Amino acid sequence: MRFLDRLIKMFQGGEITDLLMFKSLAYDSLARFIRSGLPELERRIELTDSYKDVFTYIEEHLSARLSGKDVCEALGHAYETMRRRFRDDNGITLNQYISGRLIQAAAMRLLLSDLTIQQIAAELGFTDEFYFSRVFKKKMEYSPREYRRINAAIKKPS
């Protein structure tokens, strides 16, 4: 609150010295924010690099049938070790990551294509559109049909 009070007082003065003080305070605050966030950002970049082969494989083979075990087998990683390491480093399991990416891909297709829900489900490897709808709704809180309707305003015109 102290920061906000100082900010309001500076704007009330309206003189050039007040504006320069405001600019200085804004730069100082931004610098502190960046410094405090950089160690975490650096760690996230390192993690992304260490899992690059995993993320690439998942993107290239994204399907409802894909599991963490499949990824590890294909890349020659020990599943239990990777499962534990991935969860510790990312806060979610490898299977949760795959599921999240699957739902993100489905959401993008719902918004940016004219494919039917059945076609999207098939494209992403779901056995049927009803199972796809249940999985999607569990994660997104809306059925695919509702999600498409609610977000129709942001769809690019054909």
In short:
It contains 9 helices and no strands. It has 158 residues and is mainly alpha-helical.
Describe the overall structure.
The structure is a single chain. The chain has helices at 2-13, 16-50, 52-60, 68-75, 79-90, 94-112, 117-123, 129-140, 144-150. With 158 residues, it is an all-alpha fold. Among the domains are: 1-39; 96-153, Homeodomain-like (Arc Repressor Mutant, subunit A, Orthogonal Bundle). α1 (2-13) crosses α2 and α6 (94-112) packs across α9. The radius of gyration is 23 Å and the shape is flat. The termini are far apart. The relative contact order is 0.07.
Order of helices and strands: HHHHHHHHH
CATH architecture descriptor name of the domain at 96-153:
Orthogonal Bundle
According to CATH, what is the class of the domain at 96-153? Mainly Alpha
Number of DSSP strand runs: 0
C-alpha Rg (nearest Å): 23 Å
> Hey, roughly how much beta strand do the residues contain?
under 5%
Which properties best describe this structure?
single chain, 158 residues, mainly alpha, Arc Repressor Mutant, subunit A, 9 helices, 77% helix, flat
Question: How do the helices and strands line up, and which of them pair or pack?
Answer:
Layout: H1 2-13, H2 16-50, H3 52-60, H4 68-75, H5 79-90, H6 94-112, H7 117-123, H8 129-140, H9 144-150
